[in-house]
Amino acid sequence: MGTVNNPSIVPGVDDPSTLNIAIIGGGITGINLALGLEHRLNQNPKLTNTSNGQKRLSYTIYERAPGFREIGAGIGFSPNAERAMGLLSPDVLASFKRVANPNGEDYFQWIDGKTDKLIFKLYCGKDGFQGGRRSDILEEWAKLIPLERVQFGKTVETVSEEAEEEKITIHFTDGSVAHADVVIGCDGIRSRIRQLVLSPSQESIIEAAHPHYTHKFCFRSLVPMDAAIASIGEKRAMTRFMYNGPKAHIITYPVGNSSMLNVLAVISDDKPWPEENKKLTAQGSKSEATEAFKDWHETARKIVDLFPEDSEGRMEKWAVFDMAQFPADRYVSVDQGATGKVCVAGDAAHATGPHLGAGGGLGVEDALVLSALLEDVALGLPTHAEDGKETRKKSELVRAALQVYNDVRYERTQWVVKNTRYAVDLFQWQDPVVGRDDAKFGGEITKTFHKVWEYDVEGMVQGALDGLGKKIGGR
Cα 415–417–418 angle (5° rounding)? Predict the structure, then answer.
């Protein structure tokens, strides 16, 4: 990572008994990480230094927007994500449940978009795989974050890691700086921290520093439930359904206390995205959507007709980008003089499409294991100067923790990124083996979704803590 000489740098917090954590980004992953740390600060008395009364762990969220915000589209969290929320903090799960929308049935249901016949049903568990509007969920979680823990309007320019320095310096585009012992990049799919972590030195890594177009784009909208029921009936509007078909699919589910229907229509696209390196959105049209589904069953066409348009028939379309084609080879800074005290999490590390409904949940899992590891690091810091005794530097503990995080999370997250692409091929009848075979589809979908849902999040945390204990030699 590059070093910037800036005379305006102010002294950092050098207390050896406090771990200072910088969280870059206040989206789903960043807020969950903060809430996991906040819960541990409030519940673990050992995180208070008895010699001076100071907390042994401190964190700050640096968010580039003027406030916490997410787009209004819907998002679902699978059973593994809910288990991770509960382990992060009971308040995280309770807040989610307050705004999560129940489905009419505890099943994922797939419909043949050409015939309107049921293809397959997959049980999600009692009240499993609930969702809601992103903005509603984020707002509930944000209420739990103390205001003094957040700085808004902060866009990272670069981060300086120096081998001879314990602290890291974060340089923002407004000229200000901040210091931390560890930096966690939760800054989304177009992550600046990922670019810095990978420190491009070869073409494949340069490509991995940026997300890439999957040749899928989508139209999405929140449709008033009254209009949805009038068009497709109460059963279809009040229950989660997916409509499969050639080179496209549609997913619908209720959100906003069933006041709206979240509609997402995903379309395959052979052309390059017009704003590959700039924007995830482009101008589309209602006619573009209707053309893609013109040969589908009437129900699917009615759903597409629910999309709003402006007076000139225009609609915004969203590109689906991910990190599958050029995955990051690691989530921790280890190249070109970096000290291994900066990492990425959530979409910043392993952005994936929405097709398995797993991306947000992966970020929650990341937040859980990071909060557990960083708590353990804080507990391992010296509480006072120990004359005549060697004390392990914070940087050594942080490096060990982030390497364990990388080792624990890399295989799982990369599998989800890869298999999300496989899932969309199944939905859009593009897999050469499964094709339109309903029985094969059900078998493959069951295996794929269950591997996401049945992940042992408790075992993940315990394995990470055991791994950290081995690395630091039983302090």
Answer: 65
Residue 122 in domain? no
Burial of 381 by CB count in 10 Å (0-12 exposed, 13-18 middle, 19+ buried)? buried
CB 461 within 8 A of CB 372: yes
What pLDDT sits at residue 166?
75
Share of the chain above pLDDT 70, in %: 90
Task: Name the band, by pLDDT with cuts 50, 70 and 90, for residue 474.
Answer: low
What are the backbone dihedrals phi and psi of residue 266, each rounded to the nearest 5 degrees, phi first? -105, 130
293, two tokens: 């589904």
Helix axes 394-427, 359-379, angle to 10 degrees: 170
Show which residues are catalytic. Answer: 220
Q: Which of 307-316, 338-347, 430-439 has the lowest mean pLDDT?
A: 307-316
Is residue 196 within 8 A of residue 342, CB to CB? The reply is yes
CATH number at residue 353: 3.50.50.60
Which of 322, 349, 366 delimits the end of a domain? 322
Rounded-to-integer distance, Cα 431 and Cα 440, Å:
11
The answer, yes or no, to whether residue 439 has pLDDT greater than 80, is yes
Residue 252 and residue 309 in one domain: yes
Return the pLDDT at 164.
60
Q: Domain containing 433: what range?
A: 19-101+130-211+325-471
One domain, residues 256 and 390: no
Domain total in the chain? 2
CATH number of the domain encompassing residue 260: 3.30.9.30
Residue tagged 């700039």 (tokens):
278
DSSP letter string, 126-177: TT-SEEEEHHHHHHHHHTTS-GGGEEES--EEEEE--TT-SSEEEEETTS-E
Q: Is residue 109 part of a domain?
A: no
Write down the residue that tokens 């799982």 correspond to: 412
